[in-house]
User: What shape does this take?
Amino acid sequence: MAEFKRWMRALFARRVVLWAALTLLALLVAALVGPLLLESDGNTLNVTQRLLAPGALYWMGTDELGRDVMARALEAGRYSFAIGAATALLAALAGGLMGLLAGFFSRLDAVLMRLVDAMMSFPDILLGIALVSILGASPVNVVLALAIVYTPRVARVVRASTLVIREQPYIEAARAVGIPLPRMLWVHVVPNLLSPALVQLTFIFANALLAEAALSFLGVGVGAEIATWGSMLSGATQYADQALWLLLFPGLAIVLCALSLQLLGDGVRDLMDPRLRGQS
Assistant: This one.
């Protein structure tokens, strides 16, 4: 517990990282708890109240179908957070395994890294559009497509770390005493890969939020029947000249969430890297 407190104090020594964490926590709590506290439902239609400006009754106004923008944005946050988190975890697991195998086994290195290079030769958004178009528009398929897009990034980082770890004296000692390979990887290699993988996870989380918003904005995301911040932006474009709040609130949520994750990732990276810790 004392060690955990020391790490937390070091992580949040920079105010910008602390504010980023608090902002992210506030957005997450609002998305999880907010819809339960509101009387209105984000999917309830009321065309007589369409395109109302923010006011006492509707704090964030209403959309073109009379739906409460605040309730809809809070419900959309659940899907956006879930898609981003699932993408980051899946990419971290797949990329971590690929990077571990490529870094520790020389015979697999050339094959896996050529696959990674081929995947990274495509722009992220174009590869994501192609994969979602093939798989179909649904939350699960969007997560799978984005995880495939971001897996190579994790793989390259983990591979680079594995190449350094496998040459360390304690790995040579483990080999000399005959420790089985699976145990060696799990006990001596994987724990040392958690730091770079954790940093990449926060960055991929932020990129996945932006990518999902971009896919939904282009009409190849989770589908119109499911509200995400990106799909809210997509539906609001044709009303931007008369109802700016339809773009403002979901767009602001995306910006705050992505920026907070990036800043938090920077803080974690500085904490894990002794060379950067003194520059924080």
